[in-house]
Amino acid sequence: MSRARGMSGELKGSAAEYLGLGGTNFMEFECQSGTKVGLKDCSRDCVDYSCRGKADPSFIEPSKNPKSSKFNSEKQNPLRRLDGKGGSLSLECEESLAVNEVLHDCRSITDLPPALISEILNCLEPKELGVVSCVNTSLYRLASEHHVWKEFYCERWGQPILLAPLGTENADEKSWKELFVEREFRSKTFMGRYNIDTLYGHTEAVRTVSVLSSKKLVFTSGYDQIVRMWNMEEGLSIASSRPLGCTIRAVAADSRLLVAGGTDGFIHGWRAEDGNPHLFDLTSPQNQNTEFRVWEHEGPITCLALDLNKMYSGSWDMTIRVWDRSSLKCLNVLMHNDWVWSLAPHDTTVASAAGSDLYVWDTNIGSELAIVTNVHAGNAFSLARSHTGKLLFTGGEDGAIHMFEIIRNVKFHVKRVATWIPHLGAVYSLAFEFPWLVSASSDGKLSLIDVRKLLRTNRSYVVEKLSKVDNKVKNVEPPQRMLHGFGSNLFAVDVGLDRIVCAGEEGVVRIWNFSEALEVEQRVRALRGLRLENRMRRRKLQSEMTSKGSRGDQCSVAAKKNQLNGDRNSWRNRRRVAGKLKA
């Protein structure tokens, strides 16, 4: 019995530490309403000795015990303040009493203040938060409406894209939890069935692909010097520009601006037109209000990127230029030691791959924050970045893919987390949409890597144990899927919702459509819900039948007892009647 009590005490203590409460307070949290709870453990620091002596006759003052007085003299006296009864209270005891007042009538976690429950839920992962929401109705309401769902969504996919949802509701009517669950559900489709749409129109190799998911548009260009716009859903060509005069190696687009970078060192751009369902008019003659061209680079432009207020361009002239989108003026020039192959901006920083090195820059002051040298054996051709900006992915001439984490402490650190070698040739392009990293290589294959498991299992390893950058990091695991069916040299790839768009030397654009897998998964989920509902209904009926059966058994037993008693009474009555007749 004593051993069992000790084990229960250890369990309660561990639970109290998880909730951030002391052991004494947790005992009060579990006490019944009729139980008296004291503060004997902290009374030594709370109440004056004179008062303590009156309350407890067996108490020995420190002056009468030389050992205790010696111990207390060496110990630093805690801070005290006078209470209303003339005694002195320490600050620790005051905080303990305040917590006790809050938890006095609490018997479960649902009795805690909503603010405290919110802080506890804020420490959970999405899966754990979903488990908590299944406990009872009150926790379901608190967990489903918690603000952390918005943080979960935005740190994985950025701001939500208002598209046709899975059900009949509109996206703006859904909660952040529903948006998160729907997007997480969509991310599973890359392991399912697919269809391939092949788009013809380019006459030479395609060097760049850009997907605008919010408008379901795809932009491509290459050696034929023409920028083409495609409908991602139907796989049809919408419009194409006139020849721009040189090879186009980079294209970037958002809902307000489309830019293309040429080997002659210029940036050609189109502004969105109001009322145009496809945003940009590529077919009309040059219009100064909607079309522009800027010259600053002294070499071919290899990469472009856009954010809310700035435009970024990288070139073989070993520079990255930061532009103001409205005035088209160059704000900063970031000098590298080799040709710039790729870049990825986030907030006030931009990551770049130049030669075989990886750089991170501060775009406001134009200073170098970090550099990792010799990332690949050869050039680092491709670069991708997560929506939070903390994860970087590089692909190089050696066929390897490296994953890095940006750690901001006192200094700016870039630590290597993992390495994959899924390809036999150079990795020319990378695209990342949580949790999938997609790579295109010169071997004509696409690799799909799910980083969720890596992030979940190696979180402490990433933060604590990575002290050195080693180029010979072992492979974490093979990619989850390889997509074949191409010739050689895939130059570009991009991801948009449930589609992967790639292009290469063949001059055709292929769209891997996983919407069929999404529909199959929807049907499977609906059948699973129906089976669960039927199972719960059967359990309910079974419990009702069991309860009715137990009642019937009780009634039959009572009837038998009554029948026996009735038989005995009738026999006694007959005997009495016979006796009366004899008399």
From TrEMBL:
What's one Pfam family the UniProt record gives for this protein? Answer: WD40
Q: Where is the composition biased (Low complexity)?
A: 61-75
Write out the transmembrane intervals. none
Keyword Repeat part of the UniProt annotation: yes
Please give the SUPFAM superfamilies that the UniProt record associates with this protein.
F-box domain (SSF81383), WD40 repeat-like (SSF50978)
An example of a Gene Ontology cellular component annotation for this protein is: nucleus
Q: Which keywords has UniProt assigned to this entry?
A: Repeat, WD repeat
Sequence segments annotated as region (Disordered):
60-83, 541-583
Q: Which residues form the F-box domain?
A: 106-152
The record, for InterPro entries, names:
F-box-like_dom_sf, F-box_dom, WD40/YVTN_repeat-like_dom_sf, WD40_repeat_CS, WD40_repeat_dom_sf, WD40_rpt
- WD repeats at which positions? 199-240, 294-333
Q: Where is the composition biased (Basic residues)?
A: 571-583
Work out whether the entry's keyword set contains GTP-binding: no
The record's Gene Ontology biological-process terms are: cellular response to phosphate starvation
* Protein name as it appears in the record: F-box/WD-40 repeat-containing protein
This protein's species is: Capsicum annuum (Capsicum pepper)
Question: Source taxonomy lineage?
Answer: Eukaryota, Viridiplantae, Streptophyta, Embryophyta, Tracheophyta
